[in-house]
């Protein structure tokens, strides 16, 4: 069987030079003995009627796609997906979905290819409609929703979710239904529509309870649950979900495990339990994920523990990519920074009844304008009682006056008396 030896040879060549392996894989995919040039062979992929040879063609297709991925050639990969449709039609339908999704997923490892990936996905969906491959179409539409989400095309995502959910509920395909409902929850969360995000996640969990849920999908559900609980400031429950997520992803060596570990550490910081972080990092599950991203969270925890705004800003600057690129981490750190700034300001102004804003700014090492804005916000939020004298550039702090509860007590007494009178009137009416 010459094709087997060619695959083995191509695999050996690919280990050292993916570029040189490309023609070998193309020759397996194209018709043998047609006298075509290598360029022409690359443009025509002919399925073999022999089962063994067809398996070789499937392998060559995936290996060739991997070569294009490793060499960062998105256009060639897109052309390969288009040209391989003839071969794919000869493959059993159950295999087809996996192969096409794998080919499209290879784009994600090539930088700046999200628009091309969306375009290829749309073209392939049109092809599945023509071929009447309903289940493959739904799988690709699910993938397209995720791509829209990554590209921040939220309205397109929600429109496709609505259409796809109607189809899936008719077919009762629970597995894909769970994936789509989870994606809907993620889209709504990105749009800050938390009630809708929670409702979609609840639906996804209900659907997942009716089937066997694969570990990766279960971990994704736990991750989303943890994120939504953290948004509601329920960091304790969020931590438990992130722990389950970490175990799920870690058991399958999924790279998303590091995100779950970061969110666990974030929850501990937000709960003022920074001392627990070291014990978490020393656990068996977390040890293999030690690296720059974990060091970034440790720096944040240390700054929070020391209540130092300067250390906090230094950590944000030193680990800009690790902390700034994740929207979940970024949002919660912004909230943490505000909280830390507020605590520092309260501590600084506590001994004074009148103090210059420039003096406060000098103590906490921040611009006077930023300090003034934060102080005005704290006054409006009634964190303390005072006014800003902008003419003199001073903060005037008032002593907290005790609240006179006489008025409230009088109202409560009158309300209770009214209830007694009504009760007596009802009893008198019954006697008469």
TrEMBL record:
Keyword Protein transport belongs to the record: no
SMART domains assigned: PAM, PINT
GO cellular component, one term: proteasome complex
GO biological process: protein catabolic process
Keyword DNA repair belongs to the record: no
PCI domain mapped to chain residues: 234-402
Entry keyword set: Proteasome
Pfam families given in the database record: PCI (PF01399), RPN6_C_helix (PF18503), RPN6_N (PF18055)
Family according to the record: Belongs to the proteasome subunit S9 family.
Name of protein: 26S proteasome regulatory subunit rpn6
UniProt organism field: Linnemannia schmuckeri
Gene designation: RPN6
């Amino acid at each position: 069987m010459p094709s087997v030896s060619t695959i083995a040879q191509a695999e050996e060549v690919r280990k050292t030079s993916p570029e040189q392996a490309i023609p070998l894989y193309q020759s397996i995919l194209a018709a043998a003995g047609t006298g075509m040039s290598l360029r022409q062979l690359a443009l025509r992929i002919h399925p073999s009627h022999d089962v063994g040879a067809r398996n070789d063609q499937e392998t060559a297709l995936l290996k060739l796609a991997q070569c294009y991925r490793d060499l960062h050639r998105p256009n060639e990969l897109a052309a390969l997906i288009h040209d391989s449709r003839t071969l794919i039609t000869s493959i059993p339908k159950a295999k087809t979905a996996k192969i096409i999704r794998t080919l499209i997923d290879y784009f994600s490892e090539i930088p700046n290819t999200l628009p091309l990936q969306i375009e290829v996905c749309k073209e392939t969906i049109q092809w599945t409609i023509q071929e009447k491959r309903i289940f493959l179409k739904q799988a690709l539409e699910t993938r397209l929703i995720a791509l829209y989400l990554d590209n921040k095309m939220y309205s397109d995502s929600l429109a496709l979710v609505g259409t796809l959910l109607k189809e899936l509920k008719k077919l009762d395909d629970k597995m894909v239904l769970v994936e789509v409902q989870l994606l809907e929850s993620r889209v709504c969360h990105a749009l800050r529509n938390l009630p809708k995000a929670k409702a979609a996640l609840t639906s996804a969990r209900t659907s997942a309870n009716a089937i066997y849920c694969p570990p990766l999908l279960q971990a994704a559900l736990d991750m989303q649950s943890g994120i939504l609980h953290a948004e509601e400031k329920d960091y304790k429950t969020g931590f438990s979900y992130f722990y389950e997520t970490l175990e799920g992803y870690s058991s399958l060596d999924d790279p998303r495990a590091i995100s779950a570990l970061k969110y666990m550490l974030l929850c501990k910081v937000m709960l003022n339990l920074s001392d627990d972080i070291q014990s978490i990092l020393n656990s068996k599950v977390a040890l293999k994920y030690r690296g720059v991203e974990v060091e970034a969270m440790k720096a944040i925890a240390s700054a929070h523990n020391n209540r130092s705004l300067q250390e906090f800003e230094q950590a944000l600057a030193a680990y800009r990519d690790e902390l700034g690129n994740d929207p979940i981490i970024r949002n919660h750190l912004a909230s943490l920074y505000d909280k830390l700034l507020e605590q520092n300001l309260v501590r600084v102004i506590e001994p004074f009844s009148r103090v210059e804003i420039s003096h406060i700014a000098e103590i906490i090492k921040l611009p006077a304008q930023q300090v003034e804005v934060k102080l005005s916000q704290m006054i409006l939020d009634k964190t303390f009682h005072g006014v800003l004298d902008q003419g003199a550039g001073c903060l005037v702090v008032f002593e907290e006056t005790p609240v006179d509860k006489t008025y409230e007590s009088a109202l409560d007494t009158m309300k209770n008396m009214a209830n007694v009178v009504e009760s007596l009137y009802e009893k008198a009416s019954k006697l008469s």
